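To: structure desk
From: M.T.
Subject: fold request, one chain
Message: Could you run this one when you get a chance? Sequence is below, nothing fancy, just the single chain.
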Amino acid sequence: MTIRKNSHFGILRPIRAFCGSEEGSVIPLVALAFFVIMGVIGMAIDIGRAQLVESKLLNSIDAAGLAAGAKLNTATVQAEVEKFVHANYPDGYVDSVVTNIATAVTDNGQTITVSGTAVMQTAFMQLFGVSEVSVSATSEITRGIGGLELTLVLDNTGSMSGSKLADLKVAANDLLDVVFGAETVSNRLFVGVVPFSQSVNVGPSRTSWMNNAEIAALDWGTTSWGGCVEARVGPTPIDRDTSDDPPSTELFSPYYWPDDGNNNWIDDGDYDIRSNRGPNKSCSAELTPLTNVKATVSAAIGDMTAEGYTHVNYGAVWGWRMLSPRWRAAWASPFSVDGTDLPLDYNTPTMNKAAVIMTDGANTFASHIHGAYGYRSEGRLNGETSNGGAVDELNDRLLKVCTNMKNAGITVYTVAFGGPGSTIENMMEQCASQSDFYFDADSGADLSAAFQTIGDSLANLRVSK
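Reply: Done. Structure tokens follow.
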């Protein structure tokens, strides 16, 4: 026991002696210096951790901005950015978590700004009352804008009359608002419109495409050829209604609905030419070739009227012809890109081609219809004279046209409006370049949403790769 006491006191005695001396007064200073040094070291460690958080956050929002820029959908851009940020920045990284992500897109869709904030729990700075540090980062992505040639192939048949046609006009203009953005005239965006019913109206001024001897031989009454054309099928073994063969390969015959029991426009030698009668009966509104002027396209959409029956395939093939470089001489477009007149060659760098095909009904060919294939009884569709056989031929030709377009490098979007039935809906889905480029729009609101989504996707096609 004594030994232990002596030993304990032996240790304390010199300490007490030192503390009682003048030299012992430096102890508080040493302790303070030690505390400051340790605090500085701890702060440096936390600052280093915060720098890691800042670098990780910046990389994550950079990746999110680039991903959103490559696949921009203005309706879902915030959700897309958040998904990519969280995929690249896991919660708990260096004891931190992302607390805020903000995304802004300019009106023209060319610039995306992504901002993020992360909060990090400190390890040493808590000794000084600082329990967390907030770190922020901002990234700005500028999208390089390429070019696009686009055709809108739109159903103008009688079943579209009333609210349906009104809904289509709204939706089509919504699409224009997306693809043109703040522009009214674009340098590298060109849009054309192909209204269709049982024929397509190329315009009565395009007589150089026509067999003018046939036009002259027909009785037009007090009117004249309205611009619609017949499909180029038989009696030769080549059917050109699924091809982009230009008029220089084969001229077109004029669409002409004779006086009959369903179109009685001649009465005792007097010609009764009304909008729903005459040799141009059910001839749809004239197509509008590719233009970079938004107002011109919007006016063409506004001029559409609903009449006639449904040959979706015939509208589709004219949508293709509007984009085909084989038709460059025929269209004689006043527009060009880098010295080349439209339509441009397929796979032109930084330029893309796309078509939107919309219908509210299945292909039809009733016995009383006289359309691009004449009367059904004439058997111009591979000899088919029955309703089922003729419709099957129209359906087959629609799929063939879509396949030809896609093989040529054209991106195809399709829309079925108002629940037209499983047969045409399935075909329209097959027609699209991929399944999510097909849209089933039951209502006018659905149609606008579909066209806006297509517009966002089309804007992505204009992003330079």
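Reply (cont.): Residues 27-70 form the longest helix (44 residues). Let me know if you need anything else for the meeting.
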